[in-house]
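Submission checklist for the structure archive. All mandatory fields must be present; incomplete records are returned to the submitter.

[x] Identifier: Elongation of very long chain fatty acids protein
[x] Organism: Timema poppense
[x] Residue count: 127
[x] Sequence attached
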Amino acid sequence: GLDAGWLTKYSWKCEPVDVSTSPEALRIARGVYMYFLAKISELLDTVFFVLRKKERQITFLHLYHHTGMPMVSWGCTKYYPGGHGTLIGLINSFVHIIMYSYYLMAAMGPRFQKYLWWKKYITTLQM
């Protein structure tokens, strides 16, 4: 991701999609594909919530995001594997890193509760 594009040669103004078979273009396309696979795993997470009858953990935002993102990321993987559209995936990945870091700390037990003061900011960040 970052080392394949955004921290190297990408332009913050306008980055066209490179559909060549250059090593850089293929590296970006591979990153976009990996992002697509991550969105499939998140959709499966939602499916497992339903199968385990834990519907109360599925909000409208969760359902909307985890069903829509695999479709959008599939389209990006197939038709636009690079360019400025990758910034959306970069931001989304950053939000998920923060979110899953929170879940990890919350699962580590009561002695980590004092470090979870930032829970209220996660939903705002997701929006």
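[x] Structure attached
Curator remark: The CA atoms of residues 41 and 55 lie 18 Å apart. The mean pLDDT is 88.
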